[in-house]
Amino acid sequence: MINGKKIAVVMPAYNAEKTLEQTVRELSDLVDIKILVDDSSHDNTADLSRQLGVMTFVHDANYGYGRNQQTCYREALAAGADIVVMVHPDYQYTPLLVPAMAGMIAGGVYDMVLASRILGAGALKGGMPLYKYIANRLLTAFQNLFLGVKLSEYHTGFRAFSRGLLETLPLLENSDDFVFDNQMIAQAVMFGFRIGEISCPTKYFEEASSINFKRSVQYGLGVLATSVSFVANKLGIIRSPRFGPTGRKVTQQYYSQTVQK
Predict the structure, then answer these.
(1) Do the domain assignments include residue 56?
(2) pLDDT under 50 in the chain at which residues?
(3) CA dist., res. 189 & res. 79, Å (int)
(4) What's the pLDDT at 201?
(5) What is the pLDDT of residue 132?
(6) pLDDT of residue 256
(7) Residue 30 within any structural domain of the chain
(8) Number of domains the chain contains
(9) What number of other Cβ atoms are within 10 A of residue 128's Cβ?
């Protein structure tokens, strides 16, 4: 707890058995709630999570990274979290930064905090493939221009959110796939939330999850489509529920595939 704010860490997981324990062991004592959502893994991720004392939910099928996050945030809010930090359990990002990120929100400075691999030149040093680094920089420049903000990167999977942001954004209108992350930032900009960044080292290794080249291309196209849709909604050309107040939120009852075990 920081400044009286209850902190939850949520971990969207798929086949994370090899790296989960190391991730959980490094979580700060300041974390009040630990939640893992297993997207129907083929290994023992869920069993290990329960053994580590983590509140564990299991999808009855592999619904995708975006849908996994929807469950993570809904369960964190239901558990009474004031600040929610998403940590990938593949240990690509260090959980040691959780208190710093949560503190930036608990202090009332930001509503969303992104752990940037680009600040401090940590991406290439940590083993990010060159083609991914170049794509990251090009897509980030494109989105800074279209969204009218200035971030060092939009594609990190290590993020912190205020309860108010998670209750406001129509997250159920987003993709079930990896572009969910990018759509969420665009929504936060559209709704006027304050976004901050913190430098974060990263590690690329065999057990760390990473999408292949084909999926990376699909993600990139999704990012471009998100940016164009953002501008079209901003100009009133279209009215998408993804960027409007009537869109479906995670605080609503949505799907029944989540089972606590």
Answers:
(1) yes
(2) 254, 256-258, 261
(3) 26
(4) 84
(5) 79
(6) 47
(7) yes
(8) 1
(9) 20
Domain at 213, CATH number: 3.90.550.10
Q: How far apart are CA 250 and CA 219, in angstroms?
A: 23
Q: What is the DSSP string of 157-201?
A: S-EEEEHHHHHHS-GGGS-SSTTHHHHHHHHHHHTT--EEEEE--
Q: Tell me the residue range of the domain where 119 lies.
A: 7-256
**pTM for the complete prediction?**
0.90
State the Cα–Cα distance between residues 219 and 53, nearest whole angstrom.
34
Instruction: Give the number of C-alpha atoms closer than 13 A to the C-alpha of residue 158, restricted to the C-beta side.
Output: 26
Alpha-carbon separation of residue 78 from 1, 35, 250, 251, 257 (angstroms) = 17, 11, 10, 8, 16
Pull the structure tokens for residue 138.
């090009």
Nearest residue to 37 (alpha-carbon basis) of 19, 18, 17, 55: 55
Distance in angstroms (rounded) separating the CA atoms of residues 131 and 201: 18
pLDDT recorded at residue 133: 83
Asked if the structure places residue 2 within a domain, the reply is no
Residue 117, pLDDT score: 86
Q: What is the predicted pLDDT for the residue at 253?
A: 55
261 assigned to some structural domain:
no
Contacts of 187 (CB under 8 A, 6+ apart): 169, 170, 171, 174, 242, 243
- The pLDDT score that the predictor gives to residue 119 is 81
